[in-house]
Amino acid sequence: MPQLNPNPWFAIMILTWFTFSLLIQPKLLSFIPTNNPINKTVTAKPTPWAWPWT
């Protein structure tokens, strides 16, 4: 069974994770989120829906 041979696939997986964690992840984390939920104010509670069958 060739899928049990980790020789080529383990190196590809390690190289992919190193690429992601060292190159791509710092670039993605450097972006500032546009919708920061901390700055949002709480609005008044909405009125409950008046269901016609209740």
TrEMBL record:
It is a single-pass membrane protein. It holds the Pfam family ATP-synt_8. Keywords: ATP synthesis, CF(0), Hydrogen ion transport, Ion transport, Membrane, Mitochondrion, Transmembrane, Transmembrane helix, Transport. GO terms for biological process: proton motive force-driven ATP synthesis. GO terms for molecular function: proton transmembrane transporter activity. It is found in: Mitochondrion membrane. Its main location: mitochondrion. InterPro entries: ATP8_metazoa, ATPase_protein_8. One of its GO terms (cellular component) is proton-transporting ATP synthase complex. The chain crosses the membrane at residues 6-24. Belongs to the ATPase protein 8 family. PANTHER family: ATP SYNTHASE PROTEIN 8. This is ATP synthase complex subunit 8. It comes from Syrmaticus ellioti.
